[in-house]
Structure formats: structure tokens, C-alpha cells
Amino acid sequence: MTTTSPFSLLVVDDEPDLRTLYELTLVREGYDVETAGSVEDALARLASRRYSAVITDMRLPDGSGLDLLRHIEQQGRPEKAIVITAYGSAENAVEALKSGAYDYLTKPVDLRQFRAVVGSALGRSGQPLPTVVPAQLPSALAQGLPAAPAAAAPARSRSGEPPAAAAAPTPVAPTRAALARLVGHSGAMQQVRALIEKVSRSMAPVLVQGESGTGKELVASAIHKVSSRGSGPFIAVNCGAIPENLLEAEFFGYRKGAFTGAAEDREGFFQAAHGGTLFLDEIGDLPLSMQSKLLRVIQERAVRPVGAVNEAQVNVRIVSATHKDLQAEVQAGRFRQDLFYRLNVIQIRVPPLRERLDDLRPISAAVLERIARDAGVAPAPRLSDDAFAHLARYAFPGNVRELENLLQRAVAMSGGDVIGRDDLGLPDAAFGDTQYADDLAALPPAEPRPAPADAPLPTDLAAYLDDVERDILARALERHRYNRTAAGASLGLSLRQMRYRMARLGVHAGAGSGEAAADGDD
Ligand SMILES: Nc1ncnc2c1ncn2[C@@H]1O[C@H](COP(=O)(O)OP(=O)(O)OP(=O)(O)O)[C@@H](O)[C@H]1O
């Protein structure tokens, strides 16, 4: 056997013909290959040297491929393991992934897939797909539908991530940094981080469960960054936000002329995520018709764009997330059992913030640091003891996202270095078991507003009020020639408060206003 390849593989199968087929296929790819016909034989070879990867049949005469997997795991060996299972035995595949396999293949083995999976395990993504930047679907344009998620998906990341572009993979981010973004040292968060590190070594699908705003997307993005595909694309898709009639074209792409308005070939989410990770958020919202198509792609690892004749192989790791109880959805007949089984190989539960109050202080501190940094202010404000105690009593139905919004507003209200209890703006009605509605009714009436009684009510009050505030700040700035100190003073705000509010609402000090000079008291 030559030793010119940087990759050495051990193939374990008791059928001599198959062994030879795998060996020849891999040698042709330029790998060094050794073979074994039994568990005992394989263990003897493993005892004498290291390999880049082990490819093993599940059923062996003196045991199972799982025995080899467990050996590799227990000894902390570096080999990636790929398991070949009988067709249709999803249980075996799931078992293999849970035992630490990098990936699995089903018999009869498709050799293209075989080469792709081995290449992926070794960090070589195989044949690159032709890269076409996802764009808005013509049908969506024609119907005046919201921007197609293919374009919106990477940009929708709310975790402060730079948008993941399919055409320009992001550089490898340090593993520690990805995990450190998940602030918190509660037992639950430590467990989440440990699980992320563990699952990042395999291709196993992960289902992230948790209430809205708990950090599921942050977890998915950390899984991606920590894994060997971290330098590939991370494509986040909100399954609930895509109109049903566009799902197939969005997920799998389409060919020119496939439907009215399809003026050119477009790739879908799967092609865009090739070599990286596809994050399927709100997977529980996917209609049943699309669930079966998704299952097929996951099993076949190939997609056929709408209007195309041939399928294209894709190498994509799936991480999905839901705030729903998917098991209950399965029981109610709204979610396919087989898809659930495929997606739920490894589950990571992100608990609600109220169940890990130990994390409240460090997350608040991290959020305040970020707010101050964005506003160009130092030092970052901190919570008074009283304010923190008040916050700790709150239930945070919107979890970390709500905490972020609350602190943004509190900083803008306080304007000083210390955020007091009143700056939090949490009405007493928001606490305890009291009937929220009754308590609100008991509050003194708000000051009359000059809005006409028949004016339509806003559907998003927070966004509406932000718009009002943005408009007032912009007008005050204009009136005071973009001097923030003067504009702020005219509204009863300190310069610091003004800066926070402007940063939060994205209001700029005006082109060429020479803002630093204008606010000499900064
Ligand atoms: N542990 C944490 N440390 C720091 N920031 C966090 C943490 N968890 C969540 N966040 C922040 O909270 C916000 C919401 O997180 P994320 O979008 O990941 O939640 P989600 O569970 O995916 O929400 P949804 O269910 O609504 O999609 C983001 O800005 C994220 O950066």
C-alpha cells in the first residue's frame, strides 16, 4: 500500500466483493486504504496505527459496527466513523449517529454518495456545486409576496451574525468564540455547550427545542461554527414564513422556464448550504406535503430543482428548531413520524430564561456591553442591585430576546451609568400570579393622546412607538443643526440618553454634520 495520501482509511466488511468495491473506489480517490473482515481484525489494525476514518458495515460476523464505534469513542481516538446499514433500518442509522458515527450510508451503497460522505468526513467537500446566488423568486415578485426567503434567509439572522452568503463562505471562526457567544454558566447552559461540542463532530441531525427567544438560532450557529464545516455556509430558513406554493422552489431551486417568470436557473436552500449547515427554524410549521419532500432529500442526499430532469448531490448538515412539542404534533397527525425520527437524532433543549436565573446577570452584562459598544459609549451601564432584584422576579415570556429589548429601552431611559428599577419600565402587573388584565385595568389612565378615536390601531405597538420616537429625534436633530447635545436638551434628554436612543433606532447625526465637533461636551 502506498503512503502518499494524507488520508488513510480502514474499510471493515465481511463480504469480500463489497470490500474490494469500496477499496477500489477509495483508492481511485487517492486515499490509502486498508481492509478488515471482522471486528477482531479491525480492532487489531486499530491497535497498531491511526487512520483518518473507519468505514464499517453494521453487521459483522463477530459483532457489530457499533462495537467499533464504541471502541473509537471510549478510547478518544481521532478517527471519523462511517457506518453502512441495511436499507430501511432507520433505527440502526440513528443508533450509529447517537454512538458517535460521523455519518451513515444505506445499502445498496450509491458510490457517488459513498465518495461524497467520505470526502465530507475528511473535510474535503467533494465536487463543488455550481454556485448561483439565491435570489427572489419571480413568482413571489409577480404576486407581490414578501421577499423570497432564499434571499432573506441568511440576512434574517437575529443573533447579530453577519449574513451567511452561499456564494462567499465565511472564514473559519474560532471554536471558543462561537461557544462564548452563548453566555451563561448555569448547569443547563454548560450542558448545552458540552452537547454542541459533542454533536459538532458528526453529521447527525440535531433538533433544538425551546421557547421563542431562548437562543435556538445561536445554538444552531454554534454547532455549525464548531464543526468541521464551520467555514462553509450557514443558511437559516424560517419554515413558517414561506408561502406554501413557493416552498419547493425555495428549498430545491428551479430551472429556467420551470414556471412563468422563471427567467433563469436559481439554486435553493439546499444547494446554497452545500458543504455547510441548513438551519430549519420553526420546522413544526412545515406543511405535510413539504415534509415528505424534505424527508426524501434527507434520505437521498440529492435534490431535484423544479423543472430539472436530474438530481444533484448535496452535502448538507441539518439542524432544525421548534418551540412546539413535535412529539405531540406527530400524535395529532400534523407532523410525519418518519421525518421526526430523522430530525430528532440528537436533541438539545434550551430552557426558558426563568428556569436558569443564574444566567440573568452574565447575559444582562453581555447585552449591556454590546449596547454601549454599538452606541460608542464607555463604560457600559450596569444594573443597580434593586433593578436586578426586580428583573429576577420577572418571568420573561419572550426570554433572552425580551431581556435584550428591555435593556435597550432601560439604557435609553436611564442615560446614566447605573440603571435603576424604574428605568426598567416593568409594571407591577407583569409580576406574580395576578391577573395581568385586571391589574392593567386598575392602573391610572394614561395621558390622553391626540390620536383620532377612529384611527387604526397599530398591529405592532413597539415598532409603532419606535417610529414615532425616530421621527421626533430626527426632527429635533434637524432643528438643532445636528448638534445632539442641543437636540437632546430640547427633548429633556442628556447627551448620553440621546446617543443611546439614536443608536437603538438607527438615527444618524446627519451627513457631514461634524458630529464629534458639534457635541463638544461628549
Ligand atoms: N445565552 C445567550 N447569551 C447571549 N445572547 C443570547 C443568549 N441566548 C440568546 N441570546 C440572544 O437572544 C436573541 C434571541 O436568540 P435566538 O434568535 O437565537 O432565539 P430563538 O430561540 O432562535 O428565537 P425564535 O424561537 O423566536 O426563533 C438573540 O439576539 C441572541 O443573540
From TrEMBL:
Name assigned to this protein: Sigma-54 dependent transcriptional regulator
Species in which this protein is naturally found: Aquincola tertiaricarbonis
Keywords recorded for this protein, A-Z: ATP-binding, DNA-binding, Nucleotide-binding, Phosphoprotein, Transcription, Transcription regulation
Residue ranges annotated for the Response regulatory domain, each copy included: 8-122
Ranges where the Sigma-54 factor interaction domain occurs: 182-412
PANTHER family tied to this protein: RESPONSE REGULATOR PROTEIN PILR (PTHR32071:SF100), TRANSCRIPTIONAL REGULATORY PROTEIN (PTHR32071)
Disordered: annotated span: 151-171
Pfam family of the protein (one): Sigma54_activat
SUPFAM superfamilies in the record: CheY-like, Homeodomain-like, P-loop containing nucleoside triphosphate hydrolases
Segments passing through the bilayer: none
4-aspartylphosphate: residues carrying this PTM: 57
